[in-house]
Amino acid sequence: MPAVFSSLMLALAQLADGRVLRILLKSLAVTVVLFILIGGAGWYGMDRALAWLGLSDGLFTGAGSLRGLAALLLSLLWLWLSWRIVAMAVIQFYADEVVQAVEARAYPDRAEAARDLPLREQLSESLKSAGRALLVNLLALPFALALLFTGIGPAVLFFLVNAALLGRELQDMVWLRHRRDAADLAPASGLERFLLGGAITFLLSIPVANFLAPLLGAAGATHLIHRKKRS
Question: What InterPro entries does UniProt report for this protein, alphabetically (predicted)?
Answer without folding.
Answer: CysZ/EI24
